[in-house]
Design brief:
In chain A, about 40% of the residues lie in helices and about 20% in strands. With about 120 residues, chain A is α/β, with parallel strands linked by helices. In chain A, strand 4 (about 75-80), helix 4 and strand 5 form a beta-alpha-beta unit. The longest helix of chain A has 11 residues, at about 10-20. With about 500 residues, chain B is of the alpha+beta class. The radius of gyration of chain B is 69 Å and the shape is rod-shaped. In chain B, helix 6 packs antiparallel against helix 7 (about 325-350) and helix 7 (about 325-350) packs across helix 8. Chain B folds into 4 domains: about 1-105; about 110-215, Beta-Lactamase (2-Layer Sandwich); about 220-325; about 355-510, 2-Layer Sandwich (Heat Shock Protein 90), CATH 3.30.565. In chain B, about 60% of the residues lie in helices and about 15% in strands. The chains are: A alpha/beta (about 120), B alpha+beta (about 500).
Chain lengths: ~120, ~500
Amino acid sequence: MTKILFVDDEFINRELFSINLSKTYNVITADDGPAALQVLEENPDIKVIFSDMRMPQMNGIDFVKEAKRKFQDLKCYILTGFDISTEIQQALNENLIVKYFRKPFNMNLIRSEIEKNI
Amino acid sequence: MMDEYIIIFQEIIAAIALLFAMVTLVFRYKKNKRMSQLILALAMFPLFLSAFVNILEYLVDFKTAEDFEDFIALLFLPILIFSIHTSLLNTELEKRNQSETKFKGLFNQSFSFMGLLNAKGELLEANETAMKIVEDDEYNPIGQPFDKTYWWHHSEEEQEKVRKAIEEARKGKTIRFESTHSTKDNQLLHFDVTFKPIMDNDGKLLYIIPEGREISEIKDARLELERHKANLELIVNERTKALISANREVGVVNEKLQKKNAELEEIISQLKVAQQQVIDSEKMASLGVLTAGVAHEINNPLNFILGACTALESIMEDNQLMDSNIPMLLKHIKTGVDKASTIVSSLNQFSRNVDGCNELVDIHAVIDDCLVMINYRLKNNIRIIKEFASNQLIALGNVGKMHQVFMNIFLNACQAINGKGTITIKTYREEKNIIIDIADTGIGIAEENLNKVIAPFFTTKAPGEGTGLGMAITYNIIKQHDGMLEITSNFGAGTNIRIKLPYFNKVNQVK
């Protein structure tokens, strides 16, 4: 089963993401950036990451930067409660992230995005 | 007998002599010298002749002393006449001498240069003043044609002048002209010269009198005066020129000052707008932080709802719970989430913290966002009529600021409508421009205020209701986008605002 990493400081979001996608994918969650990096350390086969933007300690983009620095071939997505910001736009331009989703997000769109990468 | 004849003859001769003497006197008085001398000689001749005859007669023998007396008496008459004549002549000569000395003195001592020419124009005399100026004691010009004399030696032109003057004087005219003379040390003297003809009683020319007065000093003074005058004129001209140019400069400086002044006023007014824009953007920025926070806090729970909904859907499918109401209820939940999400998203557009003017602005999307935001003000009184172009209309600019533009216009339109009314929004492309017409059925703008509505701080609203900056800021944003804002209004019937923005296509993308 394809391993998917979902990073969000909100417990409900993590739980709903897992419930909705765990039938098809092996969803691993983390509640912040450092925890997520730890998960990647332990699961080098993770290739697709969805991360919330606003989190304590590291925001989504900072985490993605760090993750991509340490691990190769990652496909990263940002989920945000805000509209697009300059930071996200820049990350898109630099191909740091593939796409961003605005909350509330449609789970089916997430699913089809994952399918493109496996 | 013979003696008697002789005596008679003598008497006759004496009478003739007397007659001649008297005639001579008369002629003398008439001053015809030559004629009188001739007649006198003729008179003397018979006198001496008779005297000689008497002598011859009486030399033979003096019969008596009385005869000798008669003889002496005979001699006496001519002698008497002669002595009278001589004494008369001497008196006359003396008188003449005196007169001549007097005139000679006058002639020579005069300050004027004087001369005397004969009728041919040859010099007869020149006075001492005239001779002195020649500075040569040996020089003797007497008898020379006057124009060839030393006085005019320096210039043929002057000689010609003199020749002509003599010519004229010979015709009886008095000539006056200015001439010059060059001294031995080459000093040029100026003269005022006259030539006067002297005529006899019959109008025949006897002499010509040339006379000259030195006017060098006068001439010099006059020249000096003229030089001063010219100099003065020059100075006056220069000063006048300087004044004119100074005046012109003052004019230019004045003009510049006025221009600067106008520019300053313009800048001040721009500053006021800019200041308000800063305040405004400060407000927007803090509003942005606020809305961003709010958006996040709302979007997250919305995400819970939508996520849970999705999960429920899939559980229902898996468990075959086929209540017909369930999908509909789930759809309603999703619709609610969508609507709430749209509002949050629109709100976000206003607080975008993006500067610059290079975003793609979807005009229809911007208008829709704004309409969502003012929806609460519309209630059921104001109807929105949208006549959008079928194609997407994209302008290049700042999305957040463009939201501000339409929000301002829509809010003004809402405020202008008392009770029920409509706002018609029409968009279309016209060549290279996007046109947006927004017409309301509000109270309209009075004609005298039409030009002022875009002026900063102009408002007809009650204090506290409006800053008078909305349209000023709107106008400035449109200007920043190379657009145009036209306001037409029918007071009492409504206002039409036309916005023209450059249409963006990929060909003119570079900016």
